[in-house]
Automatic annotation (TrEMBL), chain A:
Record's protein name: LALA0S09e03642g1_1
Biological-process GO terms, alphabetical: regulation of protein localization
Segments forming domain N-acetyltransferase: 3-156
GO cellular component: NatC complex
SUPFAM superfamilies in alphabetical order: Acyl-CoA N-acyltransferases (Nat)
Species: Lachancea lanzarotensis
From TrEMBL, chain B:
Record protein name field: LALA0S17e00276g1_1
Limits of the NAA35-like TPR repeats domain: 315-679
PANTHER family the record matches: GLUCOSE REPRESSIBLE PROTEIN MAK10, N-ALPHA-ACETYLTRANSFERASE 35, NATC AUXILIARY SUBUNIT
Molecular function as annotated in GO: protein-N-terminal amino-acid acetyltransferase activity
Keywords, in A-Z order: Cytoplasm
InterPro entries in alphabetical order: Ig/MHC_CS (IPR003006), NAA35-like_N (IPR057983), Naa35_N (IPR007244), TPR_NAA35 (IPR057982)
One GO BP: macroautophagy
A Pfam family recorded for this sequence: TPR_NAA35
Domain NAA35-like N-terminal: 34-196
GO cellular component assignments: NatC complex
Location within or outside the cell: Cytoplasm
Amino acid sequence: MSISYRPLDISKTEEVKHIQKVIDADLSEPYSVYVYRYFFNQWPNVCFLAFSENEKNPVGCVVCKYEVHRGARLRGYIGMLAVEHKFRRRGIAKKLVALAIEKMRDLGCDEVMLETEVENTTALSLYEGFGFIRLKRMFRYYLNQGDAFKLILPLTEKSCTRTTFLVQPETVIAE
Amino acid sequence: MEALKAQLEHLSIEHDLIDITAEFQSLAKEMKPESVIKAPSFDLFEGTHSLEIDNLKLDSSLLQLTQAEQDFDCNVSHGSSDEQKVEFVTVIVDRICRSIVQWLNEFQTLPTTLLSCRYVEHMMHQYTQDPCGDLSTCRLETGDLLFDQVLASCVVGACYFVKFVQTLFRAGVVFEEEDLNCNTMGLDMLSNVTIEIVMSHLDLSQQLLKKSYPENDQLLLLVELLTHLVELDNYLPSNEASSFGSPNLEPVHRLIGCAERAKFFEMHSPEVCEGVFSTGIQKRLSNQFPPREIVKPMGNEYDGFIEMGKDLLLVLSVEQATTITEISQFSRFFNRTKQRNVIARAFFPLYLMRDDQTVLGQYTFNDFSFLHLKEFSLCSTSLSTALEQEPGDSALRHKFEDFLQEISSVLFEWYQTTAQNRCRYRQGYNRQLLLWDSLQAQIETFELELEGQTIKDALDEDNTLMPMTTWVFYMKLRAMSDFVLMGFELDVYRPWEFFSMFWYGYYLNQHLENNLARVSKSLVAKIASIMSLNKKLKKSKAGEKKDKVREIYRSKMAEEMPFLTKTREFVAYSTLDCQITKTLSLVGACQFSILKSCGLIDNQNPASTAFSSSEWVHKLRFKTFSSIGVPELPTYAMFQQSLQDFVVTEPMFGIKLSQCIDFTLEELEKAKSSLRKIMDDIKIKEDDAAATRLVRSESLEYYKSRYRSAEALTINARTLKTKLADTATADLVKRYTVEVSRPHGGCPYFPVLILKGIVSH
């Protein structure tokens, strides 16, 4: 069964709704329609979907964004990643993440950031396999009261310099 | 949608409305397709907190209540006999007490714990509508005193405690949602009510219970417990009564005593109070959070009050500190081996550094900063002498006072950081490092200028002390070292990063040891200088000159010598402490290099090169330190070279490997010996060199954990020696993998890399 991948097309309303269902079923955090639309409508080019040849709707997705971070560097962000249960263990998540990182790198991102649950060893292993490192741990970050790791993958050397030393003095914000 | 329609109908929004359909449609036409309508300030963080109507996971109005919940009435008494009524009220008050612990100690929300009680919601709703300080609008009206007096007073007591917690929370020491959730659903938690009114209410209940229900021990006990909980408000430093003298610890001891007794009563069946604890408040009031199940008691809640009480007693004991070093050591240890109760953590900085701009009501902030310097490196220096001799309005004193103010603001952050949760503790240092670094640069310039004016203390021909810079550097290095080591505790580093982190920890502690050696040298010289005055006295002839020397000698012996000898002891202890950290870090680095020598681990993560580079990943890891002036961050190449220097190679691989392991064993024995010395001193001496009198058990636990880590590293070294010697190098990779082991009871800063046999199938 072959899997194909393509960026999100928000004009396809049914697909968009289906992605929400896939993510809702998978993530511990409940997200409102606003959160989905926040990503989908502003950064559809860094949201990728996975399709199985026999399925009408997407079977997996990665939802991302990229923005200037504290006026200093362009930061990509992986917000959500989900694959339908029966399509797991086929490398779909890995491919989706690779596509997203590649795209964000091509768009000029200096780094890619995400948060994941400390207990989610599968996700940690996936992202660490791309070179992400755990920058810090956040106490009781999730609604389920689990701690989170903030993971960052540097794509340029800018990612390795404290924000304070990248921005103009008048716009310095302590990190 | 049916639920939404029902809600809209319920709202009856028919009057005073204006039809804006035309305007809405006109504006909508101007919108670009697919744009998101939001205020510019509304970011992703806000978005993830947004709710959605008609979404079961996010819309509290969709919560389904049971018939019992819907029908429950707070203004009728429950139970058909006196016994049943007493049982009912006891069950409610017991659950209220348990809910408080679940809210605080288990980091739950108010609406899922205390506010899930209908009586609490009902009475606080009344109070919010009409906030009268005399509680005349906040009552139950069942006509039965058990309810109207006893239960009502317990609700008021519990809510007054919430008000106390809100006050602590507003000080900004602990963090919303991660440490504490203070969402009161828009209910006013008795803002205009004084502690006296609440205490009098609870006192009346106690009198009533003693008189009319003498056989009901449990209910009386719970009312007493709530009374003592309310009394905690008196410890707030903003409360004038607590600003003078030692705090009265009796209420905390009594609170602990009540909890000790309360935990022996069995938990009642929840059926007794069916409908009283409910998710209803989330449905009825403005809920800014997704709907959540209410939290049911587990049975061990009273232990939570005991823990809170003990942690509070610990924090309050800081008031007994007689030196600044004791305060500093207190803050180092009180929240280190165990994360303290959130109330104690929130309370500590407020109790220490008060709204009246004093520390413990005893020192001004500037005096506090000055004493930090004096008790470390400033005493009996040229600068301290110059400051004593200069008039109050001199430029030197002004400049010095300015620096004291700057030091105060960094120290404020330092002490606040020590009370944070584990994750924020480490992050606090990350933020502080820039402040310490900048302060060091400024103060160093100032002291170099002073040296130009001959205000200097020579250590030898080439070096001077620079007492202020030396202290700032000492504080900065401690923050840097803690930041690095806490990363191990929080599992932030992967095994392939262990060499870099341990080696950097070693590097920082080498600088710290050097700095302490400079202070020690200076102290020895100063003490010798004072002692030499005595010899000079004995040799000189009687007369005016001798009298002058005698006067100086007496003055220095009385005012400076006690500081100098105490500081010398503390610096000696700090040196041992630093050497232990240095050794354990070195052994961690050595054990990594031994495993690398055998091809079992590498500091290069192949994954790093897929989209990034090993160098960038390394630089990102050390970003926190990249801008630090002194000690300069070694380059990436230096890190790589240092590992190469550690790695064992042919020829004579086996012998060299064995020697390397033996070296770590010798170093560990030295560390254990130093640890025993520190622990003996803490255990035996009342006035120990470590100045840990107030945190004796906490500091001992910390050093014991280091000792266990040293033992675990010793065992690991011996195991490595055996396993590596028994197997040909080429076969090691097939037989073993490397795993991270966290020895039971060991110091979390020093995880151990162990060999794990590969199970062949």
